[in-house]
User: What shape does this take?
Amino acid sequence: MDDSELIALAAEAREKAYAPYSGFKVGAALLTADGSVFTGCNIENSSYGLTVCAERVAVMTAVAAGQKEIVKLAVITNNSPPLAPCGACRQVLVEFAPRAEVIAVSTKGESRRWTAAELLPDRPMLLRPPACGIG
Assistant: This one.
């Protein structure tokens, strides 16, 4: 799948956003290693802390479907210049896909690109025992 197709799916997802408080609609589409695509939109709540970002909806949907190898994520907003994902989304992205390409796009066609790791360069490492089993 090429970038324009992924961005078009993110734009379709954006139209489904539930944003009655901010009016700020976001759509996301992610591509997994096996070619599957999962989309998400932001879903606001009057208790604003319970709002969920489009990026996290897409990632969680993919993981719930058994897909953890995320290759690319496209995110679209009407903001110019395009916005990078928020800190919470960055943390979720590096959990599953530190090497994934993240493409932020505006509805005007502007774009910016990073890897998830570039968006969260000093991310916390996973708390796993060493490979030798000591510790």
Summary: Residues 3-14 form the longest helix (12 residues). The chain has one domain: 3-119. DSSP finds four helices and five strands in the chain.
